[in-house]
Amino acid sequence: MDQVLEPLRATRLTDLFIERFEELILSGRLSIGQKLPSERELARQLAVSRPVVHDGLVELSARGLVTIQPRVGTVVNDYRREGSLALLTSLMRHADAALRPDLLEGLLSMRALMEVETARLAARHRTDADLRDLDEVIASEAKADPYDLDTVVGLDFELHHRVALASANPLYSMLLKSCEPAQRNLARLFFEVPGTVPIVFGFHAGLVEAIRERDGPAAAEVMRRLLHHGRDVLNDALNLRVR
Hints:
Arc Repressor Mutant, subunit A, 72% helix, 3% strand
């Protein structure tokens, strides 16, 4: 047991600090322009050392979330103006339903823009090996228990990822992979809605058939309808949670 429960390292505490403040800022609980407590006060409130707080704030600054002003303090930035690629990566890694509405909507819109194009390109460039991979996912979906959310969410992401791989543009598959934690978080909430699984799996089957026939416009349209349906269901689910 002693070997398993290793002491927390300072770097891990810094990561936890960064994750905590990313969530507070991206959810809107810390507002733009708000001044944070001093490093000493943050360290006291969080029961960590000042170096942990300092290193965490420096990283948050590099991501564009805060500005550290000498003799003034640390101020929350407007992420729309100051956010960096590092922030986008963090957003993809940690995003869930607690995001500010504009960020969540932005993620869904960006996904639609990217994945409609990947579907069109997959129909044009897919190989026989790509098609076998896609058929394998469809066969697994046909046998899956719709109430086994872990399996359903995994198959859903696998289908989208393999479509991206079939597009022959490696950047699309890498971008989608970077979104995996966010997509899995949102997909779990999405698939909790009764009746959603067979509808989505039906879209998946139609998408693969369009790719099989090398029909780019049809593949793009199926993907567009799939993601539009997903956005509607997810928004309804989130509205119910708020109530």
